[in-house]
Amino acid sequence: MENIVKPVACRIMDVKRESLHEYTFKVETDIKPQHGQFLQLSIPKVGEAPISVSSFGDGWMDFTIRSVGKVTDEIFNKQPGDTLFLRGAYGKGWPVEQFAGKHVVLITGGTGLAPVKSMLNMFYDQPDFVKSVHLICGFKNEEGIIFKSDLERWKEKFNTIYALDRDQKEGWSTGFVTEFVDKIPFDSFDGNYAVVIVGPPPMMKFTGLKAVECGVPEEKIWVSFERKMSCAVGKCGHCRIDEVYVCLDGPVFNYTQAKYLVD
Description:
Layout lengths: L7 E10 L4 E7 L9 E6 L3 E6 L2 E3 L2 E7 L3 H6 L7 E8 L5 H4 L3 E7 L4 H12 L6 E8 L8 H7 L4 E6 L8 E2 L18 E6 L2 H13 L7 E4 L15 E2 L2 E2 H4 L2 E3 H4 L5
Parallel strand pairs: 8-9, 8-12, 9-10, 10-11, 12-13
Antiparallel strand pairs: 1-2, 1-7, 2-6, 3-4, 3-7, 5-6, 13-16, 14-15
């Protein structure tokens, strides 16, 4: 019987600096995740951390990581050829099949772009899968922008609004993502659309409220609610909120449920 919590040693193929604080690690692995799932990355005698998959393909997987603690700090010391330990993939990803044939609106804040990157690339490579893509990406400042080449590439096929919270940048808007939600032509979608929101909890909360204010039904909104996922298999209870285990029931939730997931 397969041990679902046993880490597997995987070779780091490449390391790319994305921004001032984020790096993308390309890891050699045959694991096939779903868009929006996460894995546990670990280093023996240091610990492990849940990280979303930002991209994947045959024999490899990308993890875009922000240095925020002991484990991620240690991962940042790794170089191509070094080893990372992986286990997973875990959780429920984006309901991609439900998005087929719909207008899809994606609103991200900061590194919240990482959990939707693989899905965005799928929409880019398969333009007939959805009717249209409207993408709003917000970052705190220019130093925090990730996936710069992808942002430029996505402009070719998607309707895009890129914004910095307060800074000025040529070709970019200035303001929080909530300020641009009403720029989306929801009325022209004939009800055939879905909204995806990913970012820090306050950003998701207020962006969700703004979308509802713009007339978006709650059941059309999806978020990724990553929170204290330790064991990833629903045993430790760290991520539990009432009767919900985020690692099992999420991290992707419909807004009708996610709005009640507060501590």
